[in-house]
Amino acid sequence: MGKARTGFYTVQGETLTRTHTFCPKCGPGVIMAQHGSPRPRRSCGKCGYSEADKAPAPKAEKPARAPKGPKSK
Ligand SMILES: [Zn+2]
Question: What is the whole-number distance in angstroms between the Cα of residue 13 and the centre of ligand 1?
Answer without folding.
Answer: 22
